[in-house]
């Protein structure tokens, strides 16, 4: 039996899907462990032993072998950087572009994903409609700024598909129907190519089990 060194515990959340796409893009073998959030599996004793905060994703890395304790990581962006350490040329691109790749990865984390997540958590508060709209508008405005990134190179982080693209594709997918695509031709080209990429197709479906 082939040993698969990585377990990915997750659900159909943006953070989990980004990690799945990174695994697929890097070509690292992993096993999906679906955590059913609706059934409260993220609050089970078994899962809480891995991550006391009860959040997904979580990876268990046994790649160093049975003589070492497995590495458990519970923060999605730390997981992405761990995978990038394992496959830097793939997920971060050439050294010439690496600083740019880091910059654009963090642009999507702080300027797009962060306000989008804040808007999501406000969705059930009737009095928060105005704040939610402000946050969503801010996220979409920031996505629009990425038109420049897509105009400068084939991929958002440089000379190859990597962490910046992984961070971007899932959140752009969230706002796909609301974006003014007629004003974003380069970003549209990038997005259509990214969504057709085999690693993205597989990663998007990773938790459809």
TrEMBL record:
Residue span, GST C-terminal domain: 94-209
Membrane-spanning segments: none
Residues in GST N-terminal domain copies: 3-91
UniProt keyword terms in alphabetical order: Transferase
Keyword Transferase appears in the UniProt entry: yes
InterPro entries found in the cross-reference section: Glutathione-S-Trfase_C-like, Glutathione-S-Trfase_C_sf, Glutathione_S-Trfase, Glutathione_S-Trfase_N, GST_C, Thioredoxin-like_sf
Molecular function terms, GO-annotated: transferase activity
Annotated family: Belongs to the GST superfamily.
Protein name: Glutathione S-transferase domain-containing protein
The species this protein was found in: Caballeronia cordobensis
């Amino acid at each position: 039996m082939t040993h698969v060194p990585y377990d990915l515990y997750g659900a159909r959340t943006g953070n989990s899907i980004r990690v799945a796409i990174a695994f697929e893009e890097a070509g690292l073998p992993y096993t999906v462990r679906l955590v059913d959030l609706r059934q409260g599996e993220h609050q089970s004793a078994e899962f809480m032993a891995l991550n006391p905060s009860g959040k997904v994703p979580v990876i268990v890395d046994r790649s160093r072998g049975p003589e070492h304790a497995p590495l458990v990581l519970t923060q999605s962006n730390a997981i992405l950087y761990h995978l990038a350490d394992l496959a830097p040329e793939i997920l971060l691109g050439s050294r010439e572009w690496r600083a740019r790749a880091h910059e654009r990865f963090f642009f999507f984390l702080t300027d797009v994903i962060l306000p989008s997540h804040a808007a999501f958590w406000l969705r059930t508060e009737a009095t928060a409609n105005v704040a939610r709209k402000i946050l969503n508008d801010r996220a979409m405005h920031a996505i629009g700024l990425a038109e420049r990134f897509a105009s400068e190179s084939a991929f958002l982080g440089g000379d190859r598909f990597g962490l910046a693209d992984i961070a971007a594709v899932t959140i752009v997918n969230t706002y796909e129907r609301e974006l003014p695509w007629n004003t974003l031709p380069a970003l549209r080209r990038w997005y259509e190519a990214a969504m057709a990429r085999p690693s993205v197709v597989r990663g998007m479906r990773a938790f459809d089990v």
